[in-house]
Q: What sequence folds into this?
């Protein structure tokens, strides 16, 4: 049985903060297919298009028929524990400071045998489910958990290390004025967050979210204007050393493409908030978070950006806003690379149109604040990199993967004229 | 499958082991040169007399046998580089023997050696194989200890082996090693000490693991006429086998590729397990030695634990096994670990083993096992050596 994770004691500032450590990162190109699936929380293996053989470890030619047509497909995660060991010595520092380390050999129902991390509640000969999760190096690794849920199972140290679980962590949500903020804050508190800081810009302008949030326990509303470098730096000076997860939900949006607007005023605002705001936050909070990724139960763990799914492919109804989101998406990828050596995760939440005033003219389905909040929390709990929130986001993703040019053509349809 | 040709007319001679060191500031090149020189000297040969050269090493990078031939000033007309780790000794032998029979070379030196710097083992692990990098090391980075812990765990569940059974192998080898002045381990080991040792990767504990070290081993292969003309004590080859990636569908390795070829080995060698005077198994972990005793026909599959309980595995016992102390007590010098048993077996059947000599040793079996590419050893090999010359 997993013992429940206790809130960490106050940090002793005289003690050395442990340097970030990472498990092995090197992988072959084929093996990164496992990582790509883990980024979305799926368990996939290579399946031969010609003879159907399921392969593992990842390879470049089928072990059954030598075909090179190997596709990553979701397969059954069920299996049985064949053999186990508790590793007590390792030449890799990441594991060395986390010993003893339990791992095992699993016979998958799907065929192959996999070596994997073992959840503490797995029993010899027992049935297990394989989870494919990103580790601190940002690579997909397999964790066997008991087939039946066990109490506090998320608090198992192996499982916790493969997540960005909000439990006991301190979280900054950057924009009090976003309609999704109250739901987001409540969901994080519900998931066990220790504290939620909420950034509020222009606090002389009243906003109903303020009252709703400042009444909540463990929530503190603090001044933050992401378009103002001094404001961002000031807040980072105050709480940067205790921000474990940063959720950037700051958003400035107006409808319209280039020709509808006539000038660049709104576009400049969109870039200031959606793109440069992200950059300012990263420059102010990033280094401190990167230094605290090995800081125990409430280590810094994740950076979250919430973006329109049209960052992948523009929709001219919101053409300029979407362009700023594409810029932010690209910057997220850069941050992923820049944070990599520290183990700090970057999670991008791609959402379809949200159910708020700025998307009012669009037909349903729309993403409710609660749905978005659930997606953020479950993405953190699973340690995902890419979260697709809502039916529209899922559909755009699938069409984009099938053929980006076809999607672009369809999204830029002019409609029937006279 | 056609009948394989015999190894008649081939002599194996001039076994030489460089005394191992825990850590060395020298290179693999240095170690290999030392062993080669030792073998040549003992045979009264000069480097220029060699026309065949076979190398096994993990730490030669960026060189291979090619770079080494220029480095050492050799001019072979037959050159081989064998990347098979623990199976490399027998594989080097069988290839060299065929070169001699075919006349592609007259005198082949087979050498294996590796150095061990402070960080060598860690570095070797990190670039060992693609499958290990992708699918084994990310899970605790226990290296081969973790892989063999899983095999041992499963073997114990399946066949009822106890830790004591593995301990018997280790304790007997230590007793043998105490008679070998070059063994790295020099202190006696009791079963109690074995059982009480620090756990490494359960159920594997300290004395189940080999100590990585620096060292090298060499032997020469030539025609019987050549060996007789030079008045060298030599062994002949009864038979040899090798096999790779056998039993790939077994969910976990409880048997090796030997099982596919062992009958042929005995038939070719015209003998049975009862005729084997001593056995040199590849012993990076005792479970593998036990598996070899089964797969090489000394007992039934799963009867290994009972077999080691009923036999005395020391030099003077009724089943002499790893008479120089093997790798478990002699140390594992990288690829030389694939040669240690073969070179010792040569000493045994040529009557030159000195303090570790088994009385009347005429027929020896040597077996190799190598390369944990992912979850199991991929390469297996074995050979039967017989005392050469007039009997």
A:
């Amino acid at each position: 049985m997993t013992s429940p994770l206790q809130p960490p004691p106050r940090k002793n500032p005289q003690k050395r903060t442990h340097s970030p450590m990472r498990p092995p990162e090197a992988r072959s190109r084929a093996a990164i297919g496992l990582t790509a699936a883990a980024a979305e929380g799926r368990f996939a293996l290579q399946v031969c298009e010609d003879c159907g053989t399921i392969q593992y470890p990842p390879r470049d030619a089928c072990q059954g028929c030598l075909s090179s047509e190997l596709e990553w497909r979701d397969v059954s995660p069920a299996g049985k524990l064949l053999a186990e060991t508790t590793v007590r010595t390792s030449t890799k520092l990441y594991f060395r400071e986390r010993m003893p380390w339990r791992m095992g050999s699993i016979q998958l129902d799907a065929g192959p045998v996999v070596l994997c991390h073992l959840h503490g509640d797995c029993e010899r000969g027992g049935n297990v489910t394989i989870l494919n999760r990103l580790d601190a190096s940002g690579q997909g690794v397999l964790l066997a958990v008991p087939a039946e849920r066990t109490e506090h199972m998320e608090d198992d140290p192996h499982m916790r290390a493969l997540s960005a679980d909000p439990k006991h962590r301190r979280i900054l949500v950057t924009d009090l004025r976003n309609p999704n903020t109250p739901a987001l804050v409540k969901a994080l508190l519900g998931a066990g967050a220790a504290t939620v800081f909420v950034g509020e810009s222009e606090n002389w302008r009243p906003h109903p979210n303020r009252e709703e949030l400042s009444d909540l326990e463990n929530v503190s509303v603090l001044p933050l204007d992401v378009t103002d470098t001094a404001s961002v730096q000031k807040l980072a000076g105050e709480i940067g050393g205790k921000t474990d997860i940063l959720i950037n939900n700051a958003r400035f949006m107006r409808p319209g493409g280039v020709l509808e607007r006539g000038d660049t005023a709104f576009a400049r605002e969109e870039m200031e908030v959606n793109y440069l705001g992200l950059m300012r936050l990263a420059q102010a909070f990033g280094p401190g978070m990167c230094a605290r990724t090995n800081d125990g139960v409430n280590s810094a763990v994740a950076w979250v950006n919430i973006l329109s799914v049209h960052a992948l492919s523009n929709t001219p109804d919101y053409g300029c806003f979407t362009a700023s989101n594409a810029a932010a998406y690209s910057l997220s990828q850069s941050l992923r690379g820049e944070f990599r050596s520290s183990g700090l995760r970057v999670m991008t939440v791609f959402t379809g149109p949200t159910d708020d005033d700025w998307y009012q003219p669009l037909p349903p389905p729309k993403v409710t604040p609660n749905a978005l909040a659930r997606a953020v929390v479950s993405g953190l709990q699973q340690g995902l990199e890419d979260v697709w929130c809502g039916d529209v986001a899922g559909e755009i993703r699938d069409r984009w993967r099938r053929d980006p040019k076809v999607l672009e053509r369809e999204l830029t349809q002019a409609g029937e004229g006279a | 499958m056609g009948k394989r040709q015999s190894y008649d007319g081939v002599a194996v001679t001039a076994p030489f082991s460089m005394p191992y060191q825990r850590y060395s500031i020298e290179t693999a090149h240095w170690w290999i040169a030392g062993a080669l020189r030792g073998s040549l000297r003992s045979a009264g040969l000069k480097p220029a007399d060699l026309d065949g050269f076979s190398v096994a090493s993990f730490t030669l990078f960026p060189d291979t046998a090619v770079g080494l031939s220029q480095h050492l000033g050799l001019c072979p007309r037959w050159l081989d580089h064998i990347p098979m780790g623990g199976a490399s000794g027998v594989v080097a032998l069988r290839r060299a023997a065929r070169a001699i029979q075919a006349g592609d070379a007259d005198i082949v030196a087979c050498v294996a050696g590796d150095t061990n710097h402070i960080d060598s083992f860690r570095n070797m692990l990190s670039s060992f194989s693609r499958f290990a990098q992708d699918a084994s090391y990310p899970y605790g980075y226990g290296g081969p200890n973790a892989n063999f812990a899983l095999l041992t765990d499963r073997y114990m569940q399946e066949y009822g082996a106890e830790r004591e059974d593995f301990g018997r192998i280790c304790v007997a080898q230590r007793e043998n090693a105490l008679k070998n002045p070059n063994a790295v381990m020099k202190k006696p080991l009791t079963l109690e000490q074995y059982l009480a040792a620090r756990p490494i990767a359960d159920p594997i504990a300290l004395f189940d693991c080999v100590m990585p070290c620096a060292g090298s081993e060499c032997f020469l292969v030539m025609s019987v006429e050549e060996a007789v003309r030079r008045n060298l004590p030599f062994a002949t080859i009864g038979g040899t086998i090798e096999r790779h990636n056998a039993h790939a569908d077994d969910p976990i390795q409880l048997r090796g590729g030997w099982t596919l070829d062992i009958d042929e080995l005995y038939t070719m060698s015209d003998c049975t397990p009862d005729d084997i005077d001593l056995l040199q198994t590849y012993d990076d972990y005792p479970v593998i030695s036990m598996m070899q005793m089964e797969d090489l026909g000394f007992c039934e599959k799963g009867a290994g634990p009972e077999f080691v309980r009923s036999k005395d595995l020391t030099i003077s016992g009724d089943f002499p096994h790893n008479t120089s102390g093997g790798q478990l007590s002699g140390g594992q010098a990288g690829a030389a670990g694939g040669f240690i048993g073969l070179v010792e077996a040569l000493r045994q059947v040529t009557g030159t083993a000195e303090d570790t000599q088994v009385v009347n040793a005429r027929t020896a079996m040597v077996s190799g096992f190598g390369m944990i590419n992912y979850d199991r050893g991929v390469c297996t090999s074995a050979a039967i050596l017989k005392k050469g010359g007039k009997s």
Summary: The first helix of chain B runs from residue 28 to 43.
